[in-house]
Amino acid sequence: MTAPEEHPDVILCADGPMLVRGDHVIQDAEGQLHRTTRPISAVCRCGKSASQPWCDGTHKVIPKR
Ligand code: FES
């Protein structure tokens, strides 16, 4: 058995999404609920994804400040 800190439920990627491990429900800014259906889901943190609340990779083309 591995310690929980070796496989955290939430991982914040630098300049990228928040990875969520396991079954969760994400509430978007409008209050709509989105259930995760994958072992790991990527939640957009840049606000530019066309697939909100999920990351679609758009953050990779946003110029860094
Ligand atoms: S974090 Fe990836 S598109 Fe926003």
How would you describe the overall organization of this protein?
Helix content is 0%, strand content 26%. The model has no long low-confidence stretch (mean pLDDT 91). The protein has no helices and 5 strands. A 3-stranded antiparallel beta sheet has the order 1-2-5, with no helix packed on it. The protein has a two-stranded antiparallel sheet with strand order 3-4. The chain has one domain. The protein has strands spanning 10-12, 18-21, 25-27, 33-35, 40-43. The protein is mainly β. Strand 1 (10-12) and strand 2 (18-21) form a beta hairpin. Bound molecules: FE2/S2 (inorganic) cluster. Residues 16-17, 44-46, 48-49, 55-59 line the site of FE2/S2 (inorganic) cluster. GO terms for molecular function: 2 iron, 2 sulfur cluster binding; metal ion binding. Pfam families: zf-CDGSH. One of its GO terms (cellular component) is cytoplasm.
